[in-house]
Amino acid sequence: MAILYQHKIRERLHLIEKRTKRPFISWTEELNDVDPVYFFSLGPICSFRERFFWGDRTNETVYVGLGCTYVIETEEKEERFHTVETQWKQWVEQTDHYSNGIKMGPILFGGFSFDPYKPHTEKWRAFPHAKMLVPAVLLASKGGKATLTVTVRSGQSEETMEKIETLFRLLHEGRAPIHSLPSVRKYEEKQTEQWFDAVKQTIANIHSGKFDKVVLAREARLSFADRVEASVVLRRLREQQPFSYLFAFEQEGQCFIGASPEQLVKKEGDACYSTCLAGSIRRGKTVQEDEQLGEWLLHDEKNLHEHHFVVQMIKEAMEAVCERVYMPPSPQLLKLPNIQHLYTPVIGEHCRASSILSMVAKMHPTPALGGTPREAAVKEIREVEPLDRGWYAGPIGWMDTEGNGEFAVAIRSGLLQGQEVSIFAGCGIVGDSDPISEYEETKVKFIPMLSALGVGQDE
Ligand SMILES: C=C(O[C@H]1C=CC=C(C(=O)O)[C@@H]1O)C(=O)O
Ligand SMILES: [Mg+2]
């Protein structure tokens, strides 16, 4: 199958190349089901320098991209979402796509930093304030049906074809690259004292009326005996966090990866979806304790307060572009393997937004990651948080040629840099926050990445 497939792709692309005058060509074909993490793991072996992974929280849509045919990158600040949207539309105009009637085409995948006004540190050197790309090869799995989309520059398909041939040979042979998790050598929570000082200062500033809520994050750094391979972490995240968005974006050998429960926004035609997620407590050790903790969370003033700011902002943002907005009157519980949250889903009908990115521009950062009022809170984070967030807590996701797509908020995440890994966690500070409880909350939020890295209670 795989061998025939290679010839088919080569023939097709040559045929399209001869016919088209456009600078880019793209071709979609159905594919036998492939394990997406296995597909992802083959990227570097086939000399693809970039790779990404996306799985939505229902596991209905999975995208795996290898290589990069077109990239949109900008260090702009206010305009970054708009710039990416405009360039994407121009690219779509320059591309001939052949899909054989299949409802799939090329997508743009990538992410944005949390705060474009925060100067870059060395850690996030490889991650600009906005970077989205069209992969050379895209595996898409939707509702159990898989497709492959190959996108190349006209007249330059040969190099990509050689990589694709290697890819299909390996898929055919079914040989898995042998990777395992190296052992951890060192675990260090960074700048805890400064973080506590920032929390205390923020609480005082909230009392004096400077703002209502600010989310403050911190970092833990791990050193391993050997390089940490992203596909191993991804496979573990997939098993351990089945109801979260799974994402990975790797370039220059550095991989930003995580399993986030938080949807920022999804656009599907003129329907729009978002999630308010804020307010947290750990899971109980017994069913009874778990239910008690959940009940406590549902009625705790401080957590309801934290949650309320998010609901208010998302409701306003959706109402500004949608004819009708639906949301339940009070939050429900979202129970994840290590933590439970207050959760309010939001649906918007007849959305007038030009694309998913114009929604992202309106909604990022929500008070679940920034605070209220937004500008003052983000300024406070920039000044007092002892951390370069980089892409942590930023929007990560995809957009199709029609402007539909979905973005998650990149929390419960980490940055793999060879043998070194940084993980991040934050919490919403409000007037009646207790610094020690907030510290404990961030510890619970580290658990998903720690377990995926083999550093957990179960190891
Ligand atoms: C900022 C994070 O979580 C946010 C999302 C859900 C609950 C949160 C909270 O209860 O503080 C945070 O706002 C994080 O996980 O790093
Ligand atoms: Mg909280």
From TrEMBL:
UniProt keyword Oxidoreductase, yes or no: no
Pathway assigned to this chain's UniProt record: Quinol/quinone metabolism; 1,4-dihydroxy-2-naphthoate biosynthesis; 1,4-dihydroxy-2-naphthoate from chorismate: step 1/7; Quinol/quinone metabolism; menaquinone biosynthesis
Catalytic residues identified in the record: K213, E262
EC number per UniProt: 5.4.4.2
Coiled-coil segments on the chain, per record: none
PANTHER family cross-referenced by the UniProt entry: ISOCHORISMATE SYNTHASE ENTC, ISOCHORISMATE SYNTHASE MENF
UniProt record similarity statement: Belongs to the isochorismate synthase family.
Protein name from the UniProt record: Isochorismate synthase MenF
